[in-house]
Each structure stands twice: as C-alpha cells, then as structure tokens.
Structure prediction request, 318 residues.
Amino acid sequence: MLGINPEIVLFGFGVGILIGLTGIGGGALMTPLLIVALGVHPLVAVGSDLTYGAITKTLGGYKHLRKGTVDLGVSKWLAYGGVPGSLIGVLLVDRLHSVYGKSFDHALVGCVAGALVIVASVVLVRTLLITRFAIREQHSFHFNKRAAAAAIALGFVMGVILGMTSVGSGALIGVAMIVIFRLTPQRVAGSSVFLAAALLWVAGLAQMASGNVDYGLVGNILIGSIPGVWIGAHFVDRVPDQALRVTLGAVLMGSALAMVNSAGGSVPVGVIFGAPIAVGVIGLLLELRPQTRARRRAMAAARAVPAGKQGLTATESS
Prediction:
C-alpha cells in the first residue's frame, strides 16, 4: 500500500490512544480492520500488525516505564515464556500456510475470531459481573517459585497465540494481569504494553523474515498510532478505572463480533454496533449503583495503604 491513507491514519490514532490507556487494542482492533474493512490478506494483516505493534508499544512501554506504571516482575516472568512462544507461533502459522495454501486463510481468520471472542468474554465478565473483586487489585505482585513457573507457562501459551493471530499482545496479557495477578488498571496498561513490546519484536522480525509484512501499510498505521499511544499513556492515570474497563470490554466485543462475521458467522450489523453500546450503558448503570460507589471508596482507601502492607503476596494467595 503506497501513499498516505487518511482513513488508516485516523484509525491508527484512535487505536493508539486505546493502547496507551489500557495496554490493549492493537491486534484486537487493527487486525480485524485490515481483514474485514480493507480486505488485506489474513497472513499479511497479522504480519503487518505485529510489526507496527512492536514499534508502537516500544514507545508506549518507554512512556509507562518512566511514569512508574510497569510491574517489572510480572513482565519479566511472563516474558520468559512469551518470547519463545511468540516465535513458535509465527513459525507454526507460516508452516501451516505453506502446507495448506489458501485453504488455511479461512482457518486463520477463524483463529483470530476465536481469540477475540475469548478475550472479549473474559474482559466483560471481569468488568460487569465480578466487580466486587476489584477491591483486591494491587499495585504489584510478589512471586514465589510456583507462581513464577505458572507465569512462564502462561506466557508461553499467550506468546503462541500472539505469534499466530497477532491478538493477545495487549488483550490476553492484559486479562491475565487483571484476573490472575490482580494489578490495578494503570499497572495493567503499563505492564502489558511493556511486555508486549518484547514479544512483538520477536514475532514481528520473524514475520519480516517470512515476507508477510506490507511496509506501506505499517507506515500509514504508525503515522496515526505513535502520537495516539503517547497521548493515551500520558493521560492513563487521569481516567477513572471503571471507565477504562467498560470501554475496553465494549470495544473488544464489537471487534470480536465483526471477526466472527468475517470467519463465516452471520451476526447482524445492528448487533455488531449495538452490543458494544449496550455494554457501555450497562457498565455506566452499574457504576452509578450505591454499592458500587462504596466499593470504589474502599478501593481508594486500600490503595492509600503503604506499599509494604498493600495487597496479597503470591504465597498468601496460593
């Protein structure tokens, strides 16, 4: 793709802001856009998204690191499994495409759709149905040997999914940091972007070597996404926690439904756009409930406790 495409640049800007705010949004949004809206070949869409994501999230990760919103311990242990996993994922999908040719394209779209459905479902359940657990969020997670081994295994699985579909650099990693490590939304955003940068460089370089990258397309996305990520990361600590969760869940749901359609499903256009709006309204109503406000006040009080007394250690929670 040659020249400047304002539509792609603008979408890249919007996705970049979401990445900076939540650590999620790259592969979960950009890959479906490239496949569904622009008709890009699925393998090229995945390869180009991984490459642009590596550059974008390196910038965002640096910004978050300077702001102190990165949990280096969580990022490190997940990276030990995620780096080799992402490389294996790229090699696996490239091999499958070589063996099955064009017949594998539809299967790859199905894999992307499946990954998005899983991610959207987990985020929405976490956001709308079990908000009472939000009070257990903590600023950092303390590892013992068992927790470290589990993090390596989890990182490997997420790396393979990332390498194959480009989905997961923020989505699956972010969900893991919310549900398993119980980090606060700001730390989830920073840590997932920081970790994703490492995984994406490995997967992106492998995709370059395989010839699955459209550099003109990557350039257009970067023009919009780089300033978007910088702006999102700058304002991450000024946006209410629940607003981040609800926005994230709604956007991922819309993306997942669109990809299901592309994979051969039959989801009405009204549902694709209406369902995310409904999620946003439900999230707002839940946030306005008196008991929800009480939990928010309790969370604020808990986070005011000195770091040495805050949260549960891995040993205490095992």
Remarks:
- The chain has one domain: 7-306.
- Residues 306-318 have pLDDT under 50 and may be disordered.
- Residues 7-306 form one domain.
- The two ends are 51 Å apart (CA to CA).
